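>> received
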Amino acid sequence: MTRSEKAQRLQSILDRLYPGVDIPLAHQDAFTLLVAVVLSAQTTDKKVNQVTPALFARASTPAAMARLEVAEIQSFIREVGLSGQKAKSLRRMAEILVEKHAGQVPRTLEELEELPGVGHKTASVVLNQAFGIPAFPVDTHIHRLAARWGLSDGKNVEKTERDLKRTFPEETWGKLHLQIIYFGREYCPALWHDLEACPICSWAASKKRKDEERRRDRKLRKRGGRTSEPAALIEDAGLE
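>> returned
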């Protein structure tokens, strides 16, 4: 099966399972989306959605956020991972939006990536979801699944992004990004996954890949169970 044929089959399955997808982070506009995506690093979307209503009730615009003290911002997001650093980033990000961008979220990747707390993936999400500009955000989960499915060699997220953009039509990138995230959460976990029973891995993953993951799971069991050094083992096997 060629990569193009594989991509078409993947799209057909994902469109059937997830015909309509929305970004799981609650937001009202480009700024609140940007804030939510910044907060989502190393934190679940569910937790972000629990803390942002109170934060946005207090400051839903860059100007309002810039007027808050860092300590007050942190008081709203304390339950989110890395809340201290994120509070500093949000305050400075809001100031820069007011000072350099007239209080508007910029619409270029370069300008977004210059903002504190905003990396390439976050910038790509905002471009696509807020402004409809083609982008294919790749986080560690999409990176893992693309490697598992043979769509990229998995060397790094930058390479995976390039490979996915070459494989799928530009107009599908934003929807596919969300579909793959939802599929990974529901069907395709990183560890203890039965690739033979998976709707996609069963045919998309190579025999070599399936054997590697079985060996990794056996290593984990021998080292004391499901929580014993999984990250290192995944990295060793080239599975993350």
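>> The radius of gyration is 19 Å.
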